[in-house]
Amino acid sequence: MNAEIVTIGDEILIGQVTDTNSGWIASELNKIGVEVKRIRAIKDNREDILKNVSEAIESSSIILITGGLGPTKDDITKITLCEYFESKLYFDEEVCKQLQSFFDSRGKKLSELNRKQAELPDACVPISNTIGTAPGMLFQKKDKIIISMPGVPYEMKEMMKQSVLPLLQKKAGPNRILQHTILTSGIAESDLAELIADWENNLPQNFSLAYLPQPGIVRLRITGKGEELVVKQEMEKRINKLESIASDFVFGHGEDTLEKVVGELLKKNKFTLSTAESCTGGYIAHLLTSISGSSDYFMGSVVSYSNDLKEKLLQVKSDDLKTYGAVSEQVVKQMAEGARKNLKTDYAIATSGIAGPTGGTKEKPVGTIWIAVTTPSKTICKKLQLGNNRLVNIQATSAAALNLLRKELI
Amino acid sequence: MNAEIVTIGDEILIGQVTDTNSGWIASELNKIGVEVKRIRAIKDNREDILKNVSEAIESSSIILITGGLGPTKDDITKITLCEYFESKLYFDEEVCKQLQSFFDSRGKKLSELNRKQAELPDACVPISNTIGTAPGMLFQKKDKIIISMPGVPYEMKEMMKQSVLPLLQKKAGPNRILQHTILTSGIAESDLAELIADWENNLPQNFSLAYLPQPGIVRLRITGKGEELVVKQEMEKRINKLESIASDFVFGHGEDTLEKVVGELLKKNKFTLSTAESCTGGYIAHLLTSISGSSDYFMGSVVSYSNDLKEKLLQVKSDDLKTYGAVSEQVVKQMAEGARKNLKTDYAIATSGIAGPTGGTKEKPVGTIWIAVTTPSKTICKKLQLGNNRLVNIQATSAAALNLLRKELI
User: Fold this and answer.
1) Least Cα separation, residue B39 to chain A (angstroms)
2) Shortest Cα distance from B55 to chain A (angstroms)?
3) What is the ipTM for the molecules in this complex?
4) In this predicted model, what pLDDT tens digit does every residue of A318-370 receive, in sequence order?
């Protein structure tokens, strides 16, 4: 069984509103083994609705439509679907009763405009909207199922959970699409691809792999299709194998983040952490403190953007700043050790580099960055050579520094 | 001229990644008067790509495609478009040189996989990717323009700005959709709507207004359609009026940010700034340092997550921490003044609060936050009462603190 999602609404096409409904629906359908073939957004326009719904019905067995069901003039999904299914509007007493009680419970009068929402195409089965006013509509054409839902996200989600998903689940049978994402850091996409080439080439036909890179991190998404238990077992086997091949780089699964994984390692061992940030400008501290409960292990940070503060708050030697410059192994080492000492923590991270896009020299071009991690027993420094994009450099440096710490913690 | 946007990538169709590229592209196309007819997301699959690109070319004059251009096996957009345009791959020496210098500048070797990215269909004109490895491709079919770009958002945006939008702008006629965004802080969306209700109701028919709220900030986007010069003049008149009505809250226009506006004010007056952050955990420092050139006025930050560090690095009085607690007017005032003194700056910002979702008490529920700004002559403190969402609280607090500083600087 495959599905298409059609979003109706001009606001999407002018870029005013980001369509988050389709992603949510897609993710829910995948869980019950329904593959989403296509997502599309179209205008509130009769011709476009007729054309696109017709195209969707031709190529998929389930069509989920959202949007354009409101009570106002610009909402034309209902009358256009009515036309498409060569149907006529009738007045549904049951739906009207629900509308009446919806307004009663809010102490409001049912207006003529809202009363009209009980008029529905006689080719549809109404789907109850328990938290809004526009009912959903279920149509069938041969063996195809077409469902129209409101575009308001919480109304759509409620309708999906209460009515649409249970209905589709019954139709979907035992086959499922299972997915698992493995997170890596410290290796470029192309190097990772080379490293795991054999593993990838040996995946069974019903399995596939996708590379999803972001600054400093590459996510690997493995997808398997088939009977739930069989796929589950095979997936587990493949993941274990992959983890052993890329063990130097794998830091987590699914929704894990480096800051979460590092935080858990610190918490488990009752270690504390501080950061001394120059080129990352507080971004590592922000990542760490975006985790609820981080005050258990994260004590604080010195963002020493000026050389003065590197000396004053982190005791970096003035001579070394002059001799080697702020972006150097000597300085980043002293920054990390100064943070560990002054902020009284077990571990400390430091960063110093040229985030760009300006500020580079011939010896130290933009993207030259030093990171350091200091532990109760030693300090490790590492040089990165990144690109020209300031934000990407900040993010990639933060990921590299957190990953360096992670490796020391395990 | 109308356009279609085609996003290629399984990650969209399983709901793992929300497609934000299409909305951004749609909004940019609208600005130059190109109407977006349809947005669609499809799978990394030969048949689907061929079918959908062909459908798109039939109904629109411009087709913008993103995704599937990476160096790995699952990226098949290039070879599929090559097939569609009955073309052959050739090795583009110029693109290869660009790739080589991209890797050289990062001190990395150009791998065989990446070298293959210089192989392009001979039916296309390559579009330079200045910040990534996959070049864009421009195809033409009769009078239709088909452009394929990488899916990585920052690479795609750079390519759009540098090459694609200037090209399309030339093709679009005299009618324009002009947009102007006014940025406000320090007022809730509904209060702002009341304040400017008369102004809004008096807008001409070809003008419209949208409210775009985000934590601590409400953006107002005014859209006007018609002949460029006429709309431009009317727009200017309306904006001036709006600015005078909401002058207490307007802090910028278009792509301005609070950190940019504050940075410019500091730079102009040769003032320096530091921050002392508890609940914002370095996020204000991150915002300030995300601006290139911020080292001219931003000296650094103390992220004092623990009370110890509030005492040690910011000289907050131990007694006051005990008597009033870390989340109090007394403490946030001393944090700001301590940062100003220890980090030797003209101005300082401080934050202390309960970001949540846990950690609240009856007297100080989650969302209770104090901010302070200290200047060469005084310290101002302000209490915020926000909600339960940790990230929203961090962002809203940062916006409120930067806005408080901005008001002192003007």
Assistant:
1) 5
2) 10
3) 0.76
4) 999 999 999 999 999 999 999 999 999 999 999 999 999 999 999 999 999 99
Long-range contacts of the stretch A242-246 (C-beta < 8 A, 24+): A242/A182, A242/A196, A242/A199, A243/A182, A245/A195, A245/A196, A245/A199, A246/A182, A246/A184, A246/A187, A246/A192, A246/A195, A246/A196
pLDDT in tens, B319-347: 999 999 999 999 999 999 999 999 999 99
Integer Cα distance of B155 and B133 in angstroms: 9
Number of residues assigned to chain A: 410
CA distance B378 to chain A (A): 24
Q: H/E/C letters for each residue in B309-355?
A: HHHHHHCCCHHHHHHHCCCCHHHHHHHHHHHHHHCCCCEEEEEEECC
Chain A neighbors of B289, CB-CB under 8 A: 280-283, 303, 305, 355, 394
Tell me the pLDDT band of B175, cut-offs 50, 70 and 90.
confident
Contact A41 B22 (CB under 8 A): yes
- Chain A residues in contact with B35 by the CB 8 A cut-off are 13
Interface touch A28/B11, C-beta < 8 Å: no
Across the interface, which of B38, B70, B305 has its CB nearest the CB of A298?
Answer: B305
Top residue of B289, B298, B344, B389 to mutate, by most chain A CBs within 10 Å, is B289
Question: For residue B25, what are its two tokens?
Answer: 């592209």
User: Whole-model pTM?
Assistant: 0.77
Answer whether A313 sits within 8 Å of B292, measured CB to CB: no
Strands A347-353, A368-374: pairing is antiparallel
- Nearest to residue A12, comparing CAs of B348, B289, B25? B25
Q: How far apart are the first and last CA of chain B?
A: 45
Cis omega (within 30 of 0) for bond into B204: no
- A295/B13 Cβ within 8 A: no
Please tell me the distance in Å from A95's CA to the nearest CA on chain B.
32
Residue entry with tokens 């107002």? B220
Return the structure tokens found at B295: 């080292």
User: Is 90 exceeded by the pLDDT of residue B177?
Assistant: no
Q: Which of A172-176, B29-33, B111-115, B256-260 has the lowest mean pLDDT?
A: A172-176
CB contact (8 A) between residue B37 and residue A208 = no
Q: How confident is the model at residue A176 (pLDDT cuts 50, 70, 90)?
A: confident
**pLDDT above 90: residue B148:** yes
In chain A, whose CA is at the least distance from the CA of B290?
Answer: A391
Strand locations in B84-123 (E):
89-91, 119-121
Cα separation, A14 vs B28, whole angstroms: 9
**Contact: A19, B19; criterion CB under 8 Å:** yes
Return d(Cα A282, Cα A276) in angstroms, integer: 8
Reported as a pLDDT band with limits 50, 70 and 90, residue A31 is confident
Helix and strand totals (H; E) in chain A:
17, 17
Chain B residues near residue A20 by CB distance under 8 angstroms: 18
Cα distance from N-terminal residue to C-terminal residue, chain A = 44
